[in-house]
Structure formats: C-alpha cells, structure tokens
Design brief:
By secondary structure, the protein is mainly beta. The protein has one domain: PCu(A)C copper chaperone (Immunoglobulin-like). Helices cover about 15% and strands about 40% of the residues. It has one helix and ten strands; from the N terminus they run αββββββββββ. Strands 1, 2, 3, 4, 5, 6, 7, 8, 9 and 10 form a ten-stranded mixed beta sheet that branches. The longest helix is centred in the first third of the chain and has 23 residues, at about 1-25. The radius of gyration is 28 Å and the shape is globular. This is Copper chaperone PCu(A)C. Keywords: Signal. Pfam families: PCuAC.
Length: about 180
C-alpha cells in the first residue's frame, strides 16, 4: 500500500505543480479595444447661440487628432428633437443659402473644421424651450462608424453676422419646398 501511495504521489506531483504554476502566472494583457472615430475628435470653444425662438445653431472647433478620416453624420440633443449638419453655399443667383451637408462633415487626420456663423454649423430646430446666455447644453455627435461623442457647449449671446435662424419664404433651407 505504501508503494501504491508513493507511485500515485510521484505521478500526481508534477501534474499538480504545473496546475499551480498556471494559477500563479501573470494574466495575459487584455486586447486593446478597437479605436473609434469619437476617440479621435477634440472639441474646443463649443457654443450655441442664445434664442427665445425655436431655432438656433451650434458652433465650435472640431479637430481630428487621429490617423484616419472622421465622418460626423448626425447630431442630437435632449433640448431639441431636430438637429442637422448644415453648410452655407452660394446658389446659382449668388445668394448664400443654408442646406444640410450631404455625407456629413469629413475631417482629415491632423485637420480641423470650424463651425461658425455663416459657414458650417449644427442647425438646431424645434427647441423644447428658450436657450439663455450662460446655460450649458450637450450636443451628441454621431460618426459613420456608430460611435458618438458629447460636445459640451455654453449658450451665449451673439449679434455678429446678423444671422437669423428663423425660416421664412426668402430663405432656402435646402428642403426642396
């Protein structure tokens, strides 16, 4: 019986030693998560024009700090049910008009996009309430890879460019009407 126990121990000892050694080894490093477009966007100087009407716009500097192009295709916010990415272009008669940006905003690696009055901007329509200077709001930007990033913005008064974000019969909003 003693010989049987010794033989069993002699056979099991190396197996147990290997099993215990496996438990004490350093775990493998977790695989790095795939990079998203949202991780490559730096947002600075974000702001929204104060308004007591149901329409305004969002502005700021968007910078691609990554190695691949970024394509922003959507914008959303809790304070409005309708946001669109807009550009301002000259029409056939030489007038400037706002229209949705076909294909979204594309920002190449190392480049930036300035959202500004009279240029590219985030059109905010159907506001749930007036936006007062000093308010803080968040606009969520969506990318074509499905990722999103929050753009925290301050609401401020702005009288430059004398822009009105009120639709009227003389303003072509690019909606075909």
């Amino acid at each position: 019986m003693n010989a049987t126990i010794r033989t069993t121990i002699a056979i099991l000892a190396p197996v147990l030693a290997l099993a215990l050694a496996g438990c004490s080894s350093t775990p493998a490093a977790p695989a790095q998560a795939a990079s998203t477009q949202a991780e490559s966007l730096a947002v600075t100087d974000a702001w929204v024009k104060a308004t007591d009407t149901d329409m305004t716009a969002g502005f700021g500097l968007l910078e691609n700090i990554g190695d691949e192009p970024l394509t922003i295709v959507t914008a959303s916010a809790e304070f409005s049910d309708m946001l669109e990415l807009h550009e301002t272009v000259e029409n056939e008669s030489g007038e400037m008009k706002m229209q949705p940006k076909e294909g979204g905003f594309v920002i190449q690696p190392g480049e930036s996009l300035t959202l500004q009055p009279g240029g590219d901007h985030i059109m905010i329509m159907a506001l749930a309430k007036p936006l007062t200077a000093g308010d803080a709001v968040t606009i969520t930007l969506g990318f074509d890879d499905g990722s999103t990033v929050a753009m925290d913005a301050v609401v401020k008064d702005y009288t430059g460019a004398n822009e009105s974000y009120e639709p009227d019969t003389s303003m072509d909003m690019g909606d075909g009407e």
